[in-house]
Amino acid sequence: MSDISYQQARRLGLKEVKARTARHEYPYLHALEDEIEHLNSQNEVSLGTSRVDLEQVAGTYTASRRDSFSASFFPLLEESSEFAAKWSALAASHLKEGIREPILVVEYLNRFFVVEGHKRVSVLRYFGALTVRAEVRRLLPARSKEPEILAYYEFLDFYRVTQIQYIVFRTPGRYPTLLELLCGEDRSVWDEDRQRCFFSDVTRFRRSFRDSELSAKLTRDEALLRYLEIFGYDRLQDRTPSEIGADLAAIAPELLSQAGDKRPILMTDSAEAPRGLIQRIVHPPLHDLKIAFLHDKDPDSSFWTWSHEQGRLAVQEALGDRVETVSRFNVLQNDPAETVRELAEQGFGMIFTTTPRLLRATLTAAAAWPEIRFLNCSLNVSHPIVRSYYGRMYEAKFLTGVIAGAMSINSKIGYICNYPIFSMPASINAFALGAKMVNPEAQIILEWSTIVDADIGGRFERDCVTAVSGSDSFEPARRDQELGVFALRDGKRENVAYSLWDWGKLYTQLARSVLDGSWSELKSTSEAGQSINYFWGLASGLVDVRILPALPAATARLVTLLRREIAQGSLLLFAGPVYDQDGVCRIPADRVLTHEEILHMNWLVDNVVGSLPRFDQLNEEARELVRLQGVSLPEGDA
Q: 257: how many CB neighbours lie within 10 A of its CB?
């Protein structure tokens, strides 16, 4: 005769079978041999004995025991059966001294299938245990391009270092990110103390996450990853469950974004809509605003920082007494959080961080000071608590491509690119298409300035290049440099044009949106987990082309005409047909790429000679940016 525990456990099992059947779901244990046609023990690897998360125990190895249990391992056989008696005896033993003998499982794609010990799993599940000791054999799947398989082989790299099996992702890219957050460059194998500490930290996090409303909307491990991306592992180690709960509430929009897999809203139009009376009442204008700009370098050594500093000065000049602006340079040399704390205490309500290198610090600050408006200069990020901004530089590059195509006397044009990050392939391709528009024979010789030991000058000389698209930045202390597009004539170089950033256009308009209250009209969108990315082009003035006196007048008139057509939307740069280097039609004749497709482009058009670099070819600064904002690179990547 079974005891009361078996009766209650069986009742749960029968209830689950009924509910799953009503939902047209399989109600019994899943059998691994039903999922895999030929179970090949030659692909098995013994992992020894370890503790296994019971939530990862997904079923049985063979089909012989599947009908004895519901899908969650609750028993189903009659209370008078021998099975029930053994289950009850095992339950009594567990309550008295615990279940000590390990079960035997096969792990496949981070799920465990029981070979021996079904009743032990059932008893532990009924009594709410979290883990079970198990002798584990790993069954390796055949490699493929399926996302789950790709993610699993990334897991194997993660497991090799951490020996952690209870973190589960089914999407590629998650495990490398987590490993980077936990270990940095250190890939030494974790010892037992480190594994035990991490388990304790994860357990506290899971307890807090389980008690939050967010637990019904996304998986606990996806939430853990996003938490660590924002706050870092050091913070998790120091937090109590209640403090973790407060952190989760602060970053709820970030987690909702992850749960819904919501793509960022690309704000591609800088035009300001008129505001009605209702909007002015609901979101009244501010009388003044304090704005800070945080940089990783200083304007004396970095053109990028110098150009953003010019943008700050333009805001101050345009808005006068209505704003107060300050800059903080080299903020990564100290603790960025302290810098933000000082600014928050001084009443700054809007903070721009001007590089992806500051994105992590910006996210942490935005979670701590939700009343401050934070923006980071980066691309392809999905962070509702921090808006991002960048420019459609490929529009300007199309125009400089037209110029280079017209200036080259032998159709050989050099193009020097720096970082293989989002939108860079679009700039290369737009330049190549612009050159081809005026010179169908144009070939773009692509070189990367961030490749270690690159011999760009030698390559261009060997290929007899007669026009070059070089750097669009200059050392602030030097103005006598070759800049932008230049022609090569009899060993001499003649600058004819360059593309430029005018950050003041964007900064001034975004500051105005706060002052007049229109910024707040998008706030509910971000609070619901939707991120906002400003992605402005020629029409806004954020990006542009400066024509120099050496450019022939006819070419200058053509560029002016094309610029107007692009700004008005009459000339679409990525309209088909467009072919890649392998002759594949990437854009059919009846299609135009969307802004999102252009942003994620990682292929090159057919008149480009060269390729995207491998990750291992890049210098350290380029590698850091590629980790943050990089496109998919060829084999040998990160």
A: 24
CB-based contacts of 451: which residues, under 8 Å, 6+ apart? 613, 617, 618, 619
**Beta-sheet pairing, 412-417 with 585-587:** unpaired
Asked whether the predicted pLDDT for residue 465 surpasses 80, the reply is: yes
Residues 67 and 105 in one domain: yes
- Do 212 and 259 form a contact (C-beta atoms < 8 A)? no
Average pLDDT value for residue range 374-393: 91
Whether 154 and 231 map to the same domain: the answer is yes
Residue ranges making up the domain that contains 446: 393-503+541-629
Give the closest residue to 181 by CA, choosing from 226, 246, 238. 226
Give per-residue pLDDT as tens, 249-279.
988 888 887 665 567 788 887 754 444 444 4
**DSSP for residue 590:** T
Same domain for 344 and 246:
no
Do 495 and 488 touch, CB atoms closer than 8 A? no
Residue type, 598: I
Q: Among residues 245, 260, 275, which one ends one of the domains?
A: 260
The whole-angstrom separation of Cα 11 and Cα 74 is 8
- In this structure, the number of other CB atoms found within 10 A of the CB of residue 304 comes to 17
Determine the distance from the C-alpha atom of residue 22 to the mean position of all C-alpha atoms in its chain, rounded to a whole number. 39
Contact 321, 287 (CB under 8 A): no
Alpha-carbon gap, residue 47 to 369, rounded angstroms: 46
pLDDT digits (tens, 9 = 90+) for 98-107: 888 999 999 9
State the pLDDT at residue 481.
Answer: 57
* End position of a domain, from candidates 204, 230, 260: 260
Q: What tokens were used for 114? A: 């029981």
Q: Quick check: pTM over 0.90? A: no
Q: Is the pLDDT of residue 91 over 80?
A: yes
Computed over every residue of the chain, the mean pLDDT equals: 89
The verdict on residue 534 lying in a domain is no
**Pseudo-torsion of CA 108, 196, 215, 527, nearest 10°?**
-120
CB within 8 A of 228, min separation 6: which ones?
178, 181, 182, 236
- The H or E element containing residue 405 is helix 393-407
